[in-house]
Design goal:
Length: 170
């Protein structure tokens, strides 16, 4: 059972005042609030029970993207580490850009680190094509328009070293 949390949103709306200690309850209350805002508030008690008794997958996206990073970093780490202890059956995946996570103060000591391999040129092409095909469906674009946009993006990426470096790890 996957649960996704965007850490910059949690840092902005779910943490206590700067300097106060954060814990698993802050992260859980943020998840509940997000469920309520999606009209899924009634599901929260069942989700909590499932995560405690059977586990799930908590996806914490963008550790390096939290606002006021220097002030909030300690609190985010406290909340994540306490959540891992409290919801011990859950697997937790935390994402961060490599350059940011290399800083010692960002590291989560009890977590295993893995670095994603970069996309090859072929994988980039496939990803871009599929992305624009999906966007076409959502935004009701003509397939030819979506493909044209995909081709423009591919040309831009393959002709610019900075864009290429970003596209290797979307």
């Amino acid at each position: 059972l996957p649960v996704r949390v965007i850490l910059r949103d949690f840092a902005a709306r779910g943490l206590p005042a700067p300097g106060a200690k954060a814990n698993a309850d802050h992260l859980w209350r943020f998840i509940e609030t997000e469920l309520r805002s999606a009209n899924l508030g009634d599901f929260a008690p069942h989700l909590r029970k499932e995560l405690i008794s059977r586990g799930g997958l908590l996806l914490l996206d963008g550790l390096d993207e939290a606002p006021e990073a220097d002030q909030r970093r300690v609190q985010i780490k406290q909340a994540v580490e306490d959540f891992a202890r409290t919801f011990s059956r859950c697997r937790i995946l935390v994402t961060s850009r490599t350059y940011a996570y290399q800083q010692q103060e960002w590291r989560l000591p009890a977590f295993t680190e893995t670095v994603l391999q970069p996309f090859s040129r072929g994988q980039m092409r496939v990803f871009i094509d599929r992305w624009y095909a999906h966007v076409a469906t959502i935004r009701h674009l003509k397939p030819d328009d979506a493909q044209g946009r995909a081709e423009l993006l591919k040309r831009a990426i393959f002709s610019n070293d900075r864009l290429f470096a970003l596209a290797e790890r979307p």
